[in-house]
Write a structure and sequence with these properties.
Helix content: 40-55%
Shape: globular
CATH class of the largest domain: Alpha Beta
Radius of gyration: 23 Å
Distance between the termini: 26 Å
Length: 441
């Protein structure tokens, strides 16, 4: 009830802010998307399209490391410390990230400090220094982070799942790279990479804040003039459909066994995607009930859909009884395929889905991310604001049809004790019989 109350307040706030409508403009060939916020915060998100499409497997991690250098190695005008101190004087934040589909260079500041923070943002983007000493430091930090990820069972399982399911595809590449690929990246290689990808042909910019259009256009014109045009670029979309059930096990000295299964999903820009997202939400709730509550097989079973440029559906569990888990999981899938999703469940999920989506994106920074995701994954930033309307025509029959179409074979990966799992249960065509129910956690 508390969450819904705050969501209603959010909708009122968003509605007020949207009295000034979002709009786009083109500056030096770069799309600039502007979302009035109705508050005193400004969020800038410069997006480089492509993600793992932009580099080869032997360069995995170069985008993340190169972008880190923008804020950690200083500029041609200032040292690292001088640059950070200048941001700190107005409590502005500049940070970067890189994922499978895009990279982000972001600025967050108070509106009254925008004229001070903006030149610093432009300076970092157009005049990065790639100082050798500082670059060596951030490279060592990246290697340490990779070591930590390897010791984290969930991170290690996710990496194994992606490399197994998407072998030979772009999604097999990790944005964080590997120890081998990171070790080879030099300041010169990182600089060359950004010169090739941080171009007007690959970027767009999202601005969430109340900045006058003329002022913003002037600032964007100066910034984009300092960037190369670059070669024409078109995002690639691909589909993953496992040809058969498969299972790959890796022995790990974990306290329990970690399992992830990856199946297919529709493209985020298709009419089927929202139906698949509703089905995934309901399947998650079903998995929690059956796996944890009714059978006591795991403390935190999960299921989700990834809306990336190579979309997929996934199931995850940690359990000491993997054979019983797969029986429960496959019976859940079979029952839903046979009976479909109940009309009341679909109705209730539709009612809450948009509310929670917007609730989770109430800040300027998260709103900017939501808009940039819509632009990258759906090819239309306006879709960030039409979720409620887009959900209305989806019927229970459509949700069930899409679930049946895309949830079929699974690519399973397993980390733990191979002696505790019967691999045949994961790959056989016949669904294993349900185990006797036990007390829940």
């Amino acid at each position: 009830m508390k969450k819904i109350f705050f969501s209603l307040l959010l909708f009122a706030s968003v509605a007020k802010a949207q009295e000034a409508k979002p709009y786009e403009m083109t500056v030096n060939g770069v799309k600039v998307i502007v979302v009035p916020s109705g508050n005193d915060i400004v969020q800038i998100d410069m997006v480089i399209k492509g993600g793992v499409q932009n580099y080869t497997a032997d360069q995995a991690g170069i985008e993340k490391l190169s972008l880190k250098a923008l804020t950690e190695c200083g500029t041609m005008k200032r040292s690292k410390n001088d640059f950070k101190n200048a941001l700190d004087e107005v409590d502005a934040k500049m940070y970067t990230s890189s994922n499978q589909d895009a990279a982000h260079i972001q600025l967050n500041c108070i509106k009254s400090d925008f004229d001070v923070a903006w030149p610093l943002f432009a300076e970092a983007v157009t005049m990065p220094k790639f100082d050798v000493k500082e670059f060596g430091r951030i490279k060592e930090e990246a290697l340490n982070q990779l070591r930590e990820e390897e010791s984290n069972p969930d991170a290690a399982l996710q990496k194994m799942a992606m490399q197994t399911a998407f072998k030979g595809m772009d999604y097999a590449k990790s944005p964080s790279g590997t120890a081998a690929t990171i070790s080879k990246i030099t300041p010169a290689l990182a600089k060359a990479y950004l010169n090739r990808t941080l171009t007007r042909s690959r970027i767009f910019v999202v601005v969430v804040g109340d900045i006058a259009k003329e002022e913003l256009q002037k600032k964007m014109t100066a910034l984009t003039a300092g960037l190369p045009q670059g070669k024409p670029f078109v995002l690639k979309r691909s589909t993953y459909v496992p040809p058969a059930n498969s299972f790959v096990a890796q022995k790990k000295e974990n306290a329990t066994n970690y399992i992830m299964g990856i199946s297919s999903a529709p493209q985020a820009n298709s009419k089927e995607y929202l139906a698949a997202a509703l089905a995934s939400d309901m399947f998650y709730n079903k998995a929690f009930l059956e796996v944890r509550t009714n059978n006591g097989l795991s403390y935190a079973p999960s299921a989700w859909i990834s809306s990336g440029l190579t979309p997929y559906s996934a199931m995850y569990v940690t359990t000491t009884e993997p054979d019983k888990y797969i029986a429960v999981a496959r019976n859940m899938v079979d029952k839903l395929k046979k009976d479909g999703f109940p009309e009341d469940d679909v109705k209730n999920t539709k009612n809450s889905f948009a509310t929670y989506q917007y609730y989770d994106n109430e800040s300027n920074s998260s709103l900017a991310s939501m808009v940039s995701r819509a632009e990258v994954l759906q090819g239309d930033w306006r879709k960030a604001f039409t979720l409620k309307e887009d959900l209305k025509p989806i019927t229970p029959a459509e949700v069930s049809r899409v679930f049946n179409k895309y949830i079929g074979n699974f690519t399973w990966v397993y980390q733990g004790d191979p002696a505790k799992v019967n691999q045949k249960l994961f790959i056989q065509k016949e669904t294993p019989p349900l185990p006797e129910k036990k007390q829940a956690f």
